[in-house]
Amino acid sequence: MKPVRHTTRSPVFATMALCILSFAVVMALRSGGRLEYLELAAYDWFIKTSISDASPADPRIVIVEITEQDIQRMGTWPLTDDITATILTKIFAYHPQAVGMDFYRDLPVPPGTAHLNQVLTTNPNIFAVMKFGRDGVGPPPALADTPQVGFNDVVVDPGGIVRRGLLYLDDGETVFTSFAFLLAQCYLQAEGIYPAPDQENPRHLKLGVTTIPPFEANDGGYVRADANGYQFMLDFGRQREPFIVLPLGELLTGKMPPETIENRIVLIGVTAQSVKDLFYTPYSRGIMGANQAIPGVYVHAHIINQLLHLALGESRPVQAADREYEWFWIMLWSIIGGTLGIRLRSSWMFSLGSMIGLAAIWLATYTMFLHDLWYPSVPPALAFLLSAALVTAAMVRREKEQREVLMNLFAKHVSSEVATAIWQQREQFFDGGRPRAQRVAATVLFADLRGYTSTAEKLNPSALIDWLNSFLETMADVIIAHGGVVDDYAGDGIKANFGIPLPRETDAEIRRDAQQAVICAMRMGDAMEELNRSWEARGLPSGGVRIGIYSGGVIAGAIGSERRLKYTTVGDTVNIAARLESFDKAAAAGSCWRVLIGDNTRQYLDNRFQVQRVGEEHLKGKSRAVTIYQVTSTTDTVTR
Fold it and tell me: Which CATH superfamily is domain 420-634 in?
């Protein structure tokens, strides 16, 4: 006989190796940019779900929008210089803090060019746009080489989504300031706030009370992104509609209160679809936001809004975690996934554990994001699942031989259900080489074949055994089908337990065991009726089944010798269930089956069964009275 080789080495070493392998695979995917799209999608989801619909619009920013109807009414685009000058004059009549024109004016559009130039040059708090680069678009000629011009270039990620704002760009010789930053500075100067280098790191910009660290190429979920200029992550104000919007027609007619514009930043921009100045944002992702782009003037307003919040200490910049902390975070979840692979063997528990783990990752990263810290969510989730899968596969292979050894050992002495439970709880189940005794809450069922004695006198031994076995096999099948564990056969009787060998942790589980035991008893009655019909057709005597059920605490454990070991239950609950089965004062009411239960079991039934009170009886061998009930039928909530 070939000897069995036992492996006692702890699986911890193999698990750690697989966790490190999972971590390395995920980091390789991440550094290759394979996860960037998913990580940025997670960032977009964080942005959308952290938006507060109840937040009021920022009263410091007003958008004067030029709609398609406005263009059609005026009959021209671009607007003439005269119309543009009229719009600016109307706005300045209400004393704004700063005004920004988010449309190009590099060429004159007569008539009214002199009028527009006069308005632009006499109001130093008007800011116009240019497009950066060799193939860019120049500013209005009247404002060329003045500090009233800023670039309106927008950083667009792959996929066409805007997630970053720009403060500065340079061409190697000159540093240019963004249009949005110029407007924000003009507003903040009235508060005595000016941009300055951070004292601890002069390369970082400090605006008011907040230091805005520059975006780096590999921050957050990005991999080798374009980090030219001075960029920062946009949080889009965490509001769905953060600005006051003023239609151009309403401005020109003067039908608005002066305080709508007074001391505020006014942005003039085009929202008409025909002009095609539209951008996708994190709001645009998903079914509800599909293809929902916003005009460029709104993008600049979002940048201004965030800069004002940062400068005045009303929010903090979104910062990516340091690289070493990100690595630790991903490795941590790889180890947790490996631990899951070791601990959870059943498929449904593994699935549940995986879902809980993924939910925990998502909740943790989302909570950190609400505190303006961007930790990765996709890489730890992938490392978690990968290490869990690898460790599970390794443990299944390792345990296949162990299972065969244990099942061969215990299946000879106990039922297959108990042997399976021993396998599932093998680490906690053994004590000194045999299953550990434990006190558990269970429901015990005893069933006995009525009529056995008279039938034994009529049938020859072979026919009697066949008759008896058909009863026991049928009843055992019903018990197993309803989650019971067949404990023992005693002559013409059978004992079953509901609630072992896996201890019940909650009252709901104990309640379910009791109800399942009673349902099982009713099905046993149905099976007895079917057996009688079969026996009668074959000319065999009919019989009946008496069933007793009681719920309570039992001691579950292995009894016997090394050569014959049996896992069973003992205790007062078992004794009462046996006495209920043999109690002969409750008639079967003309039926071939009768089910008696104790009050402990009745309390768990939730009125799912119709019961009749038999009375309080002093059962044989019991000093205290037991209230007995007979189950007669089910209610509508249980189908027989």
Answer: Nucleotide cyclase, GGDEF domain (3.30.70.1230)
